[in-house]
Amino acid sequence: MDKLLCSDDEIPPDGFRRDSWNDIFRDWLERSKIQGADVIEVGVWLWYNVWLLLELGAKSVVWSDYNSNVIPYAIRNVQKTHPELAHKFKAIPDSVDLLDHEIIREVLNTKKRVFVVACIPQVARHKNQNFWHDDIAHYYYFEDCQEEEWNNIGLGLNSKLLRKLREANSEAIAVLNTAVRVWEENLFKMFKNNWYQPEILAKSIIPQCPTTNLSFFESLEDSGILECQFFEDPDWKEHISAKEAEKRRLAGIKIYHEMYVVQWNPQKQTY
Ligand SMILES: C[S@@+](CC[C@H](N)C(=O)[O-])C[C@H]1O[C@@H](n2cnc3c(N)ncnc32)[C@H](O)[C@@H]1O
User: Fold this and answer.
1) Would you list the domain boundaries of the chain?
2) Tens of pLDDT along 70-126?
3) Ligand 1 mutation pick, 27, 66, 100, max ligand atoms within 8 A of CB
4) CA dihedral of residues 58, 63, 69, 72 (deg, nearest 10)
5) Which atom of ligand 1 is nearest the CA belonging to 44?
6) What are the tens digits of pLDDT across the range 39-51?
7) Which CATH superfamily is domain 2-211+257-268 in?
8) Whose CA is nearest to atom 27 of ligand 1?
9) Which residues' Cβ are closer than 6 Å to ligand 1?
10) Distance between CA 162 and CA 192 in Å, rounded?
11) How many Cβ atoms are within 10 Å of 14's Cβ, its own excluded?
């Protein structure tokens, strides 16, 4: 595990630091059956998952990110810590929106057992809003996912990924890291709306990232769409609203939310 620690010069200046989302996703990836599979990681960030995917026995890993600034750092990090695995990965240097790249299409069209692994933003922001800290890692543009049914509760980008994956390869399996701030029921509707039964690989409760602005969730409450699910303590007895959560976050008080790693498996299709 020590090998995972990066020094600051391996983190791009516009980047966020490794946090509990990374750690949990990485630990839980071990439970998915990716041995012998070809894997695509969407939104690789700095590489934290790539070495693990390869060590777990993935045949190959293709990875990309919308923020292409991170790619050289990611390549360097893998080459530095795991040079023996470097021949199995292919990094796409361009900015790639979800699956929209020739190399990814080729994997989806030609390989038999494909896993798509992703932990992509679940907070929407409007294009005319100011940029916030580590913007692209945590927020997506509401306007870019307007056609997605679950966009209004922040699941538009994930829903778009599942829809595009199903259109490209109806047998590919997705493993997604998803926060449960908008309740399990809504999260599952988003998965089922894409025609597959979600399977929870693992659940946990983790601290809300202190730099993520929660005003999007407050706006869901203000407009009466739903009251969100945050917790004041890791024992998650009582939930608190987004309004209360944001007040505490701004005051520097820790708050928590649930986190699921969900496998989306077409073999378990129920519709
Ligand atoms: C929270 S980080 C996850 C990092 C890494 N996958 C992990 O789990 O450790 C989210 C990543 O998704 C990327 N991202 C955001 N929007 C994206 C999009 N539309 N297509 C591909 N990647 C995207 C961000 O640049 C960022 O690197």
Assistant:
1) 2-211+257-268
2) 888 888 887 887 788 888 889 999 999 999 999 999 999 999 899 999 999 999 988
3) 66
4) 50
5) 6
6) 999 998 877 777 7
7) Vaccinia Virus protein VP39 (3.40.50.150)
8) 45
9) 21-22, 25, 42-45, 48-49, 65-67, 70, 96-98, 119-121, 136-137, 140, 157
10) 10
11) 14
